[in-house]
Protein 1
Amino acid sequence: MPETTATTRLRRKTRTGVVKSDKMQKTVTVTLTRRFAHPVYGKMMTRTVTVKARDEHGAKVGDTVRLMETRPLAKTVNWRVTEIVKRAK
C-alpha cells in the first residue's frame, strides 16, 4: 500500500542551527550543535556539524534557522530552510 506524501514528510529530520555563511546565491552554510552526556563518564559533550541548505527565506549570518531534510538539491545540499526562528541582531 503506497504511503501518502503527508505521512512521509512527517518523518523527515528537522534540525535547528545557526547560519555561518550566506555568500552563495541560494545556499547557506548552517552549523548544527548537539549536546549529549558521555556514555561512560557522564560529562556533557558538544559536537558540531556543518551542513549546506537551500534558502528561499533570505537568511543572513547569525540567524537561527530550522532545517528540514530533503532530496539532494545539489552535490552537497541535502537540507532546506523551512523557517527563520530568530533574526541576528
Protein 2
Amino acid sequence: MMKIEKYTIGVGDRFAHQAKAQLHAFQLAAEKGVDIVPVWNKSNREHLIVGSEPSSVKAAAEKAVAEAGWNKPWHVDADHINLDTVDRFIAPSDFYTLDVAHFIGQPASPEDLAAFAAKHPELIGVFGLTAESIATAASKYLVAVREAGKIYRHIEAIKGADNFITEVSMDETDAPQTPPELLVILVLIADEKIPIQTIAPKFTGRFNKGVDYVGDVAQFTQEFSDDLEVIAYAVKHYGLPETLKLSVHSGSDKFSIYGVIREAIKRTGAGLHLKTAGTTWLEELIGLAEAGPEGLALAKEVYSEAYDHKEELCAPYASVIDIDYAKLPLPSEVNNWTAAQYTDALRHVQSNPGFNLNVRQLLHVGYKVAAKMGERYLSMLRQSEESIQRNVSENLFDRHIKPLFFD
C-alpha cells in the first residue's frame, strides 16, 4: 500500500496551465514549517468538457515539479471515478477517488445484512449504535461499499496494491452521514478489505462550489470532531490503515469552517485531505482581468456567454450551487465594468462590498465557455501568465492554506 501523507490538498486545474503557481503555495507552506502534499485532481466530467486526457494532469504536474525543484511527494488523483470511467486514469494516476454515492440506498440482500449483523454484534452501544440503527445503516451503504470493492480490485489487478492510494467518496448524495453511520461504513469497508486512506462523507450543511460553507458552524464543529473519533476507533479496532483521514470535498472557499478544522486536527493530531478544484479557474479569470484590456475583454466575454447559457451550465451542478439569477448583473452592465469592478465581484473577499457570490458561482461552472474558445483562451492564459500565477498562488496560500494550518 502506498501511504498517504498526513496533510494533502487536492488542487484542480481545468486547463492544465497553473500547476507551477499552485505548487508555489505548497513551497511557501513548507518554508513556514508545514509540509502539505499537492494532489492534482481532475474529474472525468471535466476532462470530457475541456477535451483533455488524464495524462495531461500528470504531465503538467511533472513539469511544475521539475521546474520548481520540488523534492517532496506529490500525487495525481483520478477524481470521482467509477468502474465505467476508471480505465483511462489507470496509467497516469496514483490516487483514486472511488465515487460510489450513486449506489447509496440500493437494496442489499437480507442474507448479506444478516451476515453483517451476526459478524459485528460488538458495534451495539458504540457511538450510540443500536441493533436497529446498525441494520438501517448497513442496508443503506452495503451495496455502495461492495461497489467500491469492485473498483478497488480492478485497479489493484492492473496497477498493483503498493502503487496507489484509495479514497472512498460518499459526499455527492442528498443526506449527510452521521458519525455512527460513518463507523458502520468503515466497518463495511474493512470487511471488503479496501485499504482506504481517506473517506469523504457528506457533512451537514451545504458545500456549494466556490463559496463559503452554508450551515450551522457549531453543528459542523461537533460532527467533524465526532468523525475524527470514529476514524480513530475504526483504525484501532478494525485494522484499517493508520493513515486513514477525513477528506473534505468541495473544500475550497469554506472559510467559516477552516478555523474549526484547524483546531480539530491540531487537537487530535489527525491528518486532513481537502479537495479543491474550480477556485484556480476563477483565479485565471481574475488574472486575465488584471492583466490588461485584452484579458479583461476576454473575461467579460466569458461572463456574457455564461450568463446567456446559465441554465445549461448550471444543470449538472444543481445540487452544489445556489444562484439567485435576479442578482446576476446583465452582460451589458458587466461590459462597462473596470478591471477592479470585475475582480471585486469575483474574488472571494466577502468583506468587499463589490463581491457577488452569484457571479462567482456562475463563473465557477462556466469553464465550458472557455473550453469552447480553445486556443484563443489558452493563448491569453500564456500572455497573462504573471498576473494569473500571482493570483493563483496568493489565493491558495493566503485564503486556504494559512487559515487551515497556521494560527
Protein 3
Amino acid sequence: MAQNDFEPRHLETLDRDLGRFSNLEKATAYVARPTVAPGIAFVFIMLAGLAAALFFGQTSNTLVVVVAAIFGAYMALNIGANDVANNMGPAVGANALTMGGAIAIAVVFESAGALIAGGDVVKTISKGIVAPESIETSSVFVWAMMAALLSSALWVNLATWIGAPVSTTHSVVGGVMGAGIASAGFAAVNWATMGTIAASWVISPLLGGLIAAAFLWFIKARVIYRDDKIAAARVWVPVLVGIMAGAFAAYLSLKGLKHLVKITFPMALLIGLVGGVATWAAMIPVIRRQSRGLENRNKSLKVLFGIPLVVSAALLSFAHGANDVANAVGPLAAIVQASGSGEIGGDVSIPHWVMVIGAFGISFGLFLFGPKLIRMVGSQITKLNPMRAYCVALSAALTVIVASWLGLPVSSTHIAVGAVFGVGFFREWDSERRLKMSRVASPERPNLAPEERRRRKLVRRNHFMTIIAAWVITVPAAALMSAVIFYAIRAVAA
C-alpha cells in the first residue's frame, strides 16, 4: 500500500519537473523570434554598460570602460549562441535532454564555471598574447583591446548567423593578435605563447576525438558486444559515472576551493579519487533499479546512459564556463585595469562585475540564440545515441578541464566537435571491421559498390570540410578585422 501511495506522488513530481522544462522550451522558442531575441539582447548589453558606469566610478576614463563593457557583453552573448552548442548538442541530439532541459542545465553550470573557476585563463588572454610593455601608452593598449573585443564578437556573430560552429577562442586570440600588430608591430606579439596556443588548437581536437573514440570502443567491447548486455552495463556504467565525477571533484577542488583553503595537486587528486569511488558506489543500486525488466538489446542501454549523459553535459558546461569566459572578459579586464590605474604591464585583477557580465552574457546568448547550432552539432554531423553522446561529452569535459587548469585558452569548439568526429569516424572504422569479419565468415556475400560504400559513411563529409575551413579562416579574419577597427578607433580618438 505504501508503494502504491508513493508512485502517484512520484509521478506527479516528475510531471511538474517535465512541465517546467517544457515551459522553458516554449519560452526559448518565443524569444527566438526575429524581433524579441535581439531586443532582449540589446537590453542586456545596455545594462552591462550601466553596471560598468556604476562600479567603475566617475573618472575621465568612465566612457571608455562603459563602451568596453558593452563590447564585452556583446561578445559574451555570441559565445553563448555559438560555443555552448558544442556542449549541449550531443545530449539534445541523442534525445537524452529536451532543448529546454539542456538550456536550464547550461545556464546554471556555465555561470558557475565562469564565476568560480574562470580567472586563470582570463589572465592568459588579457596579457599573455601581446606584451603590454611594447605598446606606447595605456590609451593605445585600451584601443587595441577594444578592437579585439569588437572584431571577435562581430566574427562570431556572423558565423552564428550562417550556422558555422567556429571557435570563439580563435576569434578573440586572432583579434588580440591583429590589434597588437596594428598598434606596435609584429614584435608586440608573444610568438612563443601563440605557438603554444596554436599547437593546442591542433592537439585538442585530436585528443578529444581519440578520448571519445577510446571510451566508445570500451563501451562497445565491454557492454554492447556482450551476450548479456544488461549485466555488463550494471558493472561498467557506474564505473564510467565514477570517472566523470572524480574528474569534476578534482577540478572543482583545485579551482573553486583554493579561494577558501590551500589545496595542492596531490590533495585534489585524492579528493577526486574519493569522489569518484563514492559516486561509483552510489550509482550501483541506481543502475540496478533502472535495468530491471529491460530487454537484452542495444536500445535498452539508452535508458542506463541517461543519467551519465546529463551529468556529463553539466560537467562540460562548467568547464566551458571556466575556460571561455576569458574570451569575453579577458580584454575587458585589461581595459578596466589600464583605465583605472594607467598600468598595462602589471598583474591583471578581475573585478567581480566583469566576471558577472561574462557569465550572464554567455547564459543569455544560449537562451536567446543557441538552439540553432545545438541542433546542428547534435544531429547533422553524425548520428548520436546516449552512449555516443556520453563519450563526446566526457571526452570534451576532460580535455577542457585539463586545459583550463593549465591556463591554456584552447578552443572548446575544437575539442567538442573533434570528439563528435572521433565518435563518427570510430563508428565507420568499427563498421568496416565488422563487415570484413562477416565476409570472412560468409565469403559468398557480395561486395558493396563504391557508390553504396560512400553513401553509408557515418560522418557527413560536407560538414567536416566546412567546419575545418571555418577553423582555418577564423584567426586571420578576426586579426584583419581587428587591425581595421583599431585604425578606425585611433583615427576617431586622436
Protein 4
Amino acid sequence: MKDKISKLTTVYKKYGFVGFCKKLRAYVIANYLDKVSFKVMFNKNKYRMQIQEILKNNKYDRVILWRSSFGYNVPLFQRPQHIANNLAKKNCLVFYEVTTMSDSIKTIKKHTDNIYLFNFNNIALNKILLEELDNISKPKYIQLYSTDWKLSVDNIKSFLNNGYKMIYEYVDHLSADLAGTKTIPQNIVDKYNYVMSNKYIYVAVTADTLKEDVIKHRGQKNMVFSSNGVDYNFFKTYDSVDESDETFQKLLKSKKPLIMYYGALAKWFDYDLIKKIAKTNLYNIVLFGIKYDDSYDLEITDEKNIYFLGPRDYKILKNYAKYADVLTIPFKIEDITKSTSPVKIFEYMALHKPIVTTDLNECRKYQSVLIGRNHQEFLDQIEKALTLRNDKKYIELLDKEARENDWSQKAQAIIDLISKDE
C-alpha cells in the first residue's frame, strides 16, 4: 500500500490537482471496477467459444501470456509492443495484457494474426482463458518485465505449478526513480529475488551490466542477451509534419541546426549539458517526449534555444526526427543509465542521422555513435556530427547497424532460448 501511496504522491506533483483526479478516476475504474464484468459473467459461453476458436488455430507453436501493465496503445511504443509483435510473427500466440487506462479494451480484441489484446484484469474473462489453456498441449509461457508491479511471486508460482514456464525480461536497473516511488516496490524486489534464485526461469537481458548481475546470482543457464532494437522497415517511409505545429515550423525556418532528443525527461537527463549547448547560441535544441518527473521544470526555466514540444505519437514522431541535424542522448552516467539499452539509439540509426551520446555503456558498442565523455567533448562531437550529415560511408554504417538490430532478431533470440527445451 505504501508503494501505491508514494506513486499517487508522484502523480499529484506531476499533474496537479485536476490531472491527479483524472488519473485517479481512471486508475480506480481500470483496477477495481473493471474487474467485475457483468458483460462476461452473463455471456460466458460467448467468450469461451471465442477463445476456443483462437486456440484451435494451428498456426502457432506456443502460447505466451504477456503480463505487465504497460499498455499497448500508448505514445511510447517501446520494447513490450515490439517484442510481442515479433514473437507473434514467429509462430507464438500472444495474449498481450492491456490497461483500460490507455487501451479502452474491456475484454479481448484481435490486433493482428497471433496477437490478441487481452484484459487480464477482467476476472471472469481471465478465468475462462486459463481454463481453456488447460486443454492446450502446446508449450505455455508467462512473460513479464522486471519492472512489473502487478504479479506477485505467489502468482508466478501458481502459473509454474500449472505447467507454464516463465520468461523474465530484465530490462532496467531496479530503481525507485523508474518506478516513480520513494523506494523500490517490494513486489518488484520479491520477483527479482525469486528469479535470481531459480535457474529454470528464462531470463532475457538487455544490457551487459544486467547480464553480469544475472551471472553473479545464477550463472548463464537459461539466459539470453536481447538488447532493444528497431523496426527497420517502419523507418523507410515518412510523411510531412503538421503545418499547424507553429513552433516546429518556425524552427525549420531558422538557420540554426536542430539538435534533437526524444524520450523521457527525467532525473537522469543531463540538463546542465543541454544548457551548455544552448548557451553557445549555435543551435536550437528540440526535445520531444514526456516529463517523467518534475526535473525538467526544476532545471529549465527561461533558457534560450531550448524547445520542449511535448510528446508525439510513435507513428508520427519519425516525421519530426527526420528534420534533425543531429540526434542525441544526453544522459548522466549513473546506475540507471549504465544499464540502459536505449530504443532510440537504434531508431536514430534507421533515421540515418548523426548520433551523439554521453558515455553510455550500451552506446559504446556501435561505430556509428559519437561518444562525448564529458561536456566539452560532447560539444566537440556535435560539431563533428554536423560534418557527417551527408557522408555516404557514415550513412551506410548507420544503415548497417540499424539492420543488424531489427526487433525480429531480438525476438528470435528469446525463441531460440526457450525452444531448446520444448
